[in-house]
Amino acid sequence: MRRARALAAALVLLLAGCSGDGDGGNSGGRITLRFQSLAWQQESVAANRELVAEWNARHPDVRVEYVQGSWTSVHDQLLTSFEGGEAPDVIHDASDDLADFAYGGYLADLGKLLPRRLRDDIPRASWDTTTFGGTVYGVPFLQEPRVLVANARWLKESGVRIPTPDKPWSWPEFRSVTRELGAGKGKYGVAWPLKEPVSATLNLSLSAGGELFHRRPDGKAEIRFEDADAVVPRTVHDQVNVDGSASGATLGMGGSDTLPGFFGGKYAMVPLGFSYRQQIVQQAPKGFAWQVLPAPAGADGLAQGVSPQTLSVAEDSPYKKEAAAFIDFFLRPANMVRLARGDWMLPTGEEALKDPALRTRKNDWATGTALARHLRPAPAQSVRGYPEWSDKVATPALQEYYSGAIGLDELKKRLVEDGNLVLRRYQR
To answer: How much is the pLDDT for 382?
Structure first.
């Protein structure tokens, strides 16, 4: 069926080219690739559009059409376009959204399409985020560690030890520091924005050795909640419900929602994605001093899970080689740097990471770059059924635990027992 749709699409494109109507997929011998980008920040959109324009200027026979997508609706929009045979040729997404598309046969195998230069430039750990069943379905190109954004003056005046990537806080030390920083009267050592708690909890838990998702000998995934998996959730729970060093009001907030309180001196620190630095630069009051600190370390050091942004090629695209060539151009080291700076994130490419522009003290780029080698695939990266488990089981269970409505034993029971029931439906 998929091959038939591809042949039908090719016939339509051929007829459009013969009729001379519009730009078509192949008009007058010129190929048109549709590239759906999810860039949304002004600098990022500009970088994406500039690179598309540069490609088009150099490749008159293979034109790229820029299509603006949205992170908020990309999964459903892509699923609809795949089923309707109208998917973009080049697809911007995130690695944790690829599994069902890959297993469903909607994405092309990129193994033999990508040049050696690109394959060698990106570390194996990053490729693992887009590899399913031994096949590569996407190119991971931007990644974002979680960091602690801190009120620099508050920390300095408190006299607490300032952590660095070489000497980070441990999770127990982090809890102790937030108790010391919490001054009472509506002031807190930390604000946890956990409106979407699953990704933050699982990815930070890697530092403590927690994985939650494990592979059985038959290759199927199962959930096990072990002592290491409890370190991060227990820390957050106790900061909110035992120490009073974390604000319970922020548990239902997104990261941006906490910034007014952070600027207003209500929270000493906020755990955020690295890219939030752009919002802080744009919104912070004049004279507000802030700094980026590494997230706490555990038994596995600064290890942290990430789901990189990715570029994939639709299986139904009749121009897979041309699409792969565009991806290669788009992700040359200098271009990766431009994309990273536009999104205030880190490139996956090792050559791009060496660029001095990403190692400056200004806006603490150097702190983030120092964390790049510790980034790992998110624990549930290739698990089928993860989206349903996350939405219907883990999110409500973690929200109730963090607010103090249920205890750790009940959290464990729901994550494991209810969670494994969900996974089994996808792995029969």
So the answer is: 78
Q: What angle do CA 218, 220, 225 make, to 5 degrees?
A: 115
What is the spatial distance between Cα 235 and Cα 242, in angstroms, rounded to a whole number? Answer: 10
User: ∠ CA(35), CA(307), CA(274), 5° rounding?
Assistant: 95
Burial code (b: 16+ CB inside 10 Å, e: under 16) for 341-359 equals: bbbbbbbbbebbbebeebe
Torsion angle in degrees (nearest 10) through CA of 84, 85, 89, 93: 40
At residue 28, the pLDDT reads 58
Average pLDDT value for residue range 248-254: 96
**For the ranges 8-22, 132-146, 214-228, which has the lowest average pLDDT?**
8-22
Q: For the segment 107-136, what is each residue's pLDDT rounded down to a tens digit? A: 999 999 999 999 999 999 999 999 998 999
Residue 175 CA to chain centroid, in angstroms?
26
- CA distances to 226, 253, 324, 406, 417 from 393, in Å: 18, 19, 38, 14, 10
Q: How many residues in the chain?
A: 428
Burial pattern 201-217, b for ≥16 Cβ within 10 A else e, equals bbbbbbbbbbbbbeeee
Q: Which of 379, 385, 389, 383 is nearest to 426 (CA)?
A: 385
Q: Looking at residue 25, what is its pLDDT?
A: 55
The torsion angles phi and psi of 69, rounded to 5 degrees, stand at: -110, -175
Average pLDDT, integer, range 33-45: 94
- Compute CA distances 398 → 69, 77, 329, 391, whole Å: 30, 28, 42, 11
Alpha carbon 167 to its chain centroid, in Å, reads 25
Q: Do 292 and 168 form a contact (C-beta atoms < 8 A)?
A: no
Residue with tokens 């790992």: 376
Question: Residues 301, 139, 427, CA angle at the centre, nearest 5°?
Answer: 75
Query: Quick one: tokens of 308?
Result: 């990189």
Q: What is the pLDDT of residues 359-381, one digit of tens each?
A: 999 999 999 999 999 999 998 87
